[in-house]
Amino acid sequence: MINFITELTLTEWVGYAASIGVLVSFLMKNIDTLRKVNSIGCLLFVIYGFMLPLRAGMPIIITNVVILLINIYSLLKKGN
After folding, report:
1. Cα–Cα distance between 39 and 55 in angstroms, integer?
2. Which pLDDT tens digit goes with each residue over 39-57?
3. Residue 37: C-alpha distances to residues 1, 13, 23, 65, 71 (Å)
4. Nearest of 27, 47, 46 to residue 37 by alpha carbon
5. What's the rounded Cα separation, in Å, for the pair 45 and 43?
6. Helix, coil or strand: residue 28
7. How far is residue 31's CA from residue 77's CA, in Å, rounded to a whole number?
8. Domain limits of the chain?
């Protein structure tokens, strides 16, 4: 197990952090908190997508940019 952790690349660390961010967001009871934490996970997934070869990363980038925009829109709309 220790070897697994020490052998992870920066790209893999970002991918795991993104996954944890999105997973943790679904534990939130408050929808605004869920959207904020989920946005952090999505942003990490966008960064992760750019760290991958472009053809492999593009679906990750597109999906998470759209989710991030939906989260931002919902948070701003609720604030008005």
Report:
1. 23
2. 999 999 999 999 999 999 9
3. 28, 18, 9, 15, 10
4. 27
5. 5
6. coil
7. 13
8. 11-79
